[in-house]
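pinned: reference chain
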Amino acid sequence: MKKSEELFYLIKSLSKSEKRYFKLSTQGSESAEYLSLFDAIEAQKIYDETKIKVLFKDKAFVTQLTTIKNYLKHRILQSLRNYHARISINAVLIDIIRNVEILFHKGQYEICNSELKRAEKKAKNFQHDLLLFHIQDWKRKVHQMMNPKDFETLKIITQKQKSTLKFTNEYIDLILANVDPTQFSMSYKKSVSLQNRTLKTLHRYRKLITTSDYDKAKRSIEELIKEWEQNPALLKEYFAMYFSVCNNLLDFLMFNKQYKEAFVRVLLLKQKTHAVETASAALIKEKLKLYTIELEIHRKLKELHTTHEVIDEIQEFLEQHKTLIPNYNSVSFCFQFSAIHFMKKDYKKVLQWSTDILNHKTKNDRQDLITYIYWLHLLTHYEMSNESMLQHQIDDMKKHLKKHKTIDFYEKILLKFLLKTVNHSEIEKRKALKQLQEQLDKHPIPKHVLEYVEFNKWIH
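pinned: its structure tokens
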């Protein structure tokens, strides 16, 4: 993202209610020009500053467009802060600390103490150690102004700060240990904070996986999930963290081919997600991962009949949060949709999804996924006996393969088979398929490819 595009992406990220709140909060004659600029940028699909300048060429503010854009950005952020004032306990505590700073400069120390007492209780209940440190710092400052000679109380407050800082340092050490376990070690003392215990458990879980101690690994994650669920207030406040832990368990179940248990856990996690009001970018990322796992389960458990409902649900979710979802996620889901429809022999739907991707592919897309989509596209045209389209698509496929890598031997065999036998009789096809299988036995398709396109099952 270029700096000149920041305002564009900020506006595009706003929900309908956020936009309405912003416009209501900026009503007035002096805001008319800013709102006109807001509407013009919002109307663009791709940001084009030249068009903005042409549109407002008669307005005086266009000569200082960068300044005006910065002002508009800060007004939007201010509006978002007010709109989301109670988005989390973290936001509430930051607001209280800001209030305390203002009250402190006004000399309203009694009110400061009242606010700090309220904030300290919340920070402790929700294990916000970093903000608790700042709250205690203000507590010390206020007490020093009111009782400058009470050194004993000042000492007690400062010692509490030191203790709080110890928990914060532990949190930082745990993050480093999870980022790079080879370089950073971690303490084996029991953590007080649930967030710290989560990081510690995930670190241990990964070690158990590398040593193939799968039973212990699974138990450690299950116990951690249970602990989160026994703390509903913390679960609500840090739901994205809990969601991430659950996705770790789902990854484990998929790796061990425990698809039915994974499916039950997916449904339970989705139920819990419905109760969460705020859809943060972190939560959206975790939900995308959950949907990916759910689609994979549908591919593995072919007896499931709710696939179309899941696909509809994902489509709606992608559309609802399209400004926050990277393009590679959309391509990945479209591939999954194509693969599932191919498995169910709904060839029109396969072509609908695969054609859309291939017509809009970019150099930034995952090229391996584009290759797998090409294969599904070709196999579908073959199943539908679309000889002329198949010839054209095979030519496109060859260009794609040559551009990104050398054509593997198994790919040459498959492409040749598709082109030569598309209009053969059933008996001729069976004979050709037997020969194809013999060739592929000598030149096997890599396992990682078969995870995406099940050529062997298709041949059988």
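why pinned: Residues 151-179 form the longest helix (29 residues). The CA atoms of residues 37 and 220 lie 53 Å apart.
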